[in-house]
Amino acid sequence: MGGVFNFKSVFLFCLIVLGIQAAGAADLANGEKLHTDKCVACHAQKAVFGEPDIFYLKKDRKVNDFNGVKRMVSLCNTELRLDLFPEDEQDIALFLNTRYYRFK
Length: 104
What we know:
By secondary structure, the chain is mainly α. It has one domain (27-101). It has helices at residues 7-24, 28-46, 54-57, 66-80, 86-101. The longest helix is centred in the middle third of the chain and has 19 residues, at 28-46. The termini are far apart. The model is unreliable at 17-23 (pLDDT under 50).
């Protein structure tokens, strides 16, 4: 009876933790939309034959892990003044990793 935890408090704690994790989780659909809105036109302009995906498919690409994807998205955001929030950068990185890279 005098236990430290009871079912209600453990359940409430789990709901709070899951809510915080969900709020901080990257959003794949938002990443795809932001990529289309903020990245594709620039990549198409700089790419051979106007194919924006070439940057992600090159054999000698600049990123070799998921942290590299995040760094490149952040670099583009900063250098091109895209006005993306950190959460937006995460969403784009998740989208790129899911669509092209598949890093663990």
